[in-house]
Amino acid sequence: KASERTLNLKDKLDRVFSLFIRLKYSDANGYCRCISCGKVHYYKDIQNGHYMSRRYMSTRFDENNCRPQCVACNIFNQGNIQMYRIGLIKQIGEQAVNMVEVKARTSVARYSDFEYRTLIKYYSVLVDKLKKDKGL
After folding, report:
1. Long-range pairs for 112-117 at CB < 8 Å and ≥24 separation?
2. Residue 3: per-residue pLDDT
């Protein structure tokens, strides 16, 4: 069924994109800092936090919207959004953060199976490269 296939592709993209974000922001030893609280965790023990909720498909896979975030902030503290926003502004600037907010609230994104597969391949290549470059 097409709807089941699309769900599986979205889940696959979620997994590889999450891995990409965590590896991208990790140091040479695979450790990265939570955008909200600043605690350091191994990339396998931290999550891909979304500034604007994952329910907004237009920013779900937007690299400006995603950063490593610890489970405590992401799940138990409902994203710790105030601190997330402050951390994100420090990294990409207030104008770019405002653009993410506008994009999430005003754009609608629907991905075709082809687009999902293309993004899965793209981020898989980047994940492999990051793992190789960092020796992980």
Report:
1. 113/2, 113/5, 113/6, 113/9, 116/6, 116/9, 116/10, 116/12, 116/13, 117/9
2. 62
